Amino acid sequence: MKQSNDSDMGKPPIISIRGLTKTYKGGHQALKGIDLEIREGEILALLGPNGAGKTTLISTICGLVTPTSGTVSVGGKDIIKDYRATRSLIGLVPQELTLGAFDVVIDTIRFSRGLFGMKPDERYLDSLLADLSLLDKKQSMVSRLSGGMKRRVLIAKALAHQPRVLFLDEPTAGVDVELRKDMWKLVEKLRQEGVTIILTTHYIEEAEEIADRVGVISDGRLLVIDEKDNLMNSLGQKQLMVDLKTPISALPDSLKDFDLLLSDDGQRLTYTFDAKGERTGITALLHAVSEAGLGLKDLNTSQSSLEDIFVNLVHNEGRQK
């Protein structure tokens, strides 16, 4: 498992995880020796299929699930020995809508703030509600809100006590585009204020857009974690698409050593190569195409997306079992 070096960043990690395992009573092992350090102020995206262990990992860090073995510290304090101190550093937005139906929005937010021993601060709470487009719903009962508005209230609850770490567990699953945009604006604002943000998501394009680092979890194991750009450069592949002037029915023998893919319509050759390699083979390929008497219409290149990398990693992990 590849992990970038936190010591290079000059700051101790805000979260440190060592040898973390979790086996439930039924025998299911949800976490299998997770080692992970999360830097203060970064945005980390955790990707993985359903049942990979993402929610168990988050719940363990937050103190909601007791680990079977291993250690977790938040802000330098152990999550079990110093539960109150570590939990006060964390805000959690769960997948499920867990709100009192007959509560008033502002009372819900005030209660969450007081629960962590924070002094009242109406100015901060109003600012938080405004950031989430909830200020006009301040005196509304939660039961009268739409699902999207209830999701916003959950986020406000998680941020009411001004945590240093915010967990977003599938935050935009099933929400509208407007909420998604508002959420990412708030995430960027929190990053600027030094808050560490960890999100799990099925929307890989969101991780690709906002995350500093990306981790991939599958079957309770952390397969890889690295800077997003490093991950895409080291594990991504580039492809050269060669469009032909005249379609062909089969590859000429002189091109079969290049591991080309011929499109169904016979008009495109796709060549996969390592952009960081000493030799890409592109020059030799184009020369061979010319020698074969094939006329070139157009050339294009593309690079693997984060989704491609994720799918390949999880697929390869499954094949190795």
Task: Explain briefly what this protein structure is.
The protein has helices spanning 54-61, 83-88, 105-115, 122-131, 147-159, 177-192, 204-210, 228-235, 282-291, 306-320, and strands at 13-23, 29-39, 43-47, 69-74, 77-78, 90-93, 165-169, 196-200, 213-218, 221-227, 238-244, 261-262, 268-273, 296-303.
Topology overview:
Elements (H helix, E strand, L loop, with lengths): L12 E11 L5 E11 L3 E5 L6 H8 L7 E6 L2 E2 L4 H6 L1 E4 L11 H11 L6 H10 L15 H13 L5 E5 L7 H16 L3 E5 L3 H7 L2 E6 L2 E7 H8 L2 E7 L16 E2 L5 E6 L8 H10 L4 E8 L2 H15 L1
Parallel strand pairs: 3-8, 3-9, 6-7, 7-8
Antiparallel strand pairs: 1-2, 1-4, 4-5, 9-10, 11-13, 11-14, 12-13
Helix pairs in contact: 3-5
